[in-house]
Input
Amino acid sequence: MKSRWHTLASSYSSDQELIDGLWQEIEEQYSGRKRHYHNLNHLEYMIDKALEHQAYLGDLNTVLFSIFYHDIVYNVKRQDNEQKSADLAKERLVKLGLPDDQIARCQMQIIATKEHHSQEDSDTNYLVDIDLAILGEDAETYESYTQMIRKEYAIFPMFLYKAGRKKILRHFLEMDHIFKTDWFHKNYEPQARENLKAELAVL
Output
């Protein structure tokens, strides 16, 4: 993943010290001891999915930058993580020399991962679907994911966690389409709904 970052960032800047420093920041942020799911493994999972679907993406580089920065700020007690992550992404990508319009797209994509609504921009829909793809994995993988999420929210007592988690699960189940792109809707939606309903029943 480090080499992927260097290849990506080097397309915009020749300052290897800057590129190294930005990677170190990404690695440090995603390696926090309280990050049980939103960590480097999550980034790697998303990057792999993006590369698998790059033929459908109009601007792979922007999607990759969005992945690297979409959870760089993550505090379970706050509701503005996406906005703060988008703001930090802008600061860092300006240093790398990305064009303003590309930075703006990256910010938009990161903010879209908060509500998971359908967007006019196809790349953004793919990013959101990739972020949610874990919901449509097999039942064992999904169970492992739910355990990691619970650990991230360990500061909350179980009765509060259950109430919040039920709200999130119902939010997704009430959507006409959890996944916004045709491919993910076809291949991940049925299993995602099974997983969400199963977790809701347990809660």
Q: What stands out?
A: The mean pLDDT is 97. The two ends are 36 Å apart (CA to CA). Residues 2-202 form a domain with the Catalytic domain of cyclic nucleotide phosphodiesterase 4b2b fold (CATH 1.10.1300.10).
